[in-house]
Amino acid sequence: VQLQASGGGLVQAGASLRLSCAASGRTFSAYIMGWFRQAVGKEREFVATISGSGETTYFADSVKGRFTISRDNAKNTVYLQMNSLRPEDTAVYYCAASNRGFISTRTSAYAYWGQGTQVTVSS
């Protein structure tokens, strides 16, 4: 599966952004989808994940209550709605797909990665 992330940008603290990740292929609903981020000089970290049906989601503590993840299997797209953005949310955001059948916060569980989209939050 090929992934294309979009929706990043430069915003002020407290603003919102919605990231999208469009996937190729006809079996999108079979994939667990995740969002990760990587700030300059830091390791890539887990942000959120969603099951194939969309019924199960899980978030990093740092974004819980501010970010939501959703998917539209008819459109082969997963979304990350980011509210109340903070400067520490600044990073390149990556979407990823896993065919392991269970949600995971580990980067090693995801075999397919998009190219990343930059999110910059100014104070």
The gist of it:
The chain is mostly beta strands and 123 residues long. It is 0% helix and 48% strand.
Descriptive notes:
This protein is an all-beta fold and 123 residues long. It is 0% helix and 48% strand. The chain contains no helices and eleven strands. Strands 2, 4, 5, 6, 9, 10 and 11 form a seven-stranded mixed sheet that branches. Strands 1-3-8-7 form a four-stranded antiparallel sheet, with no helix packed on it. A hairpin with a 6-residue loop joins strand 4 and strand 5. The chain is globular, with a radius of gyration of 13 Å. The protein starts with a strand and ends with a strand. The mean pLDDT is 97.
Give structural attributes:
mainly beta; 7-stranded mixed β-sheet; about 120 residues; single chain; 4-stranded antiparallel β-sheet; 11 strands
- What structural class should be given to the helix and strand makeup? mainly beta
- What's the helix-strand series? EEEEEEEEEEE
Radius of gyration: 13 Å
User: Given the structure, what is the number of helices?
Assistant: 0
Mean pLDDT reading: 97
Number of strand elements: 11
CA-CA gap between termini: 37 Å
* Main pleated-sheet profile: 7 strands, mixed
Low-confidence stretches: none
The percentage of residues in β strands lies in: over 45%
Shape: globular
**Amount of helix:** under 10%
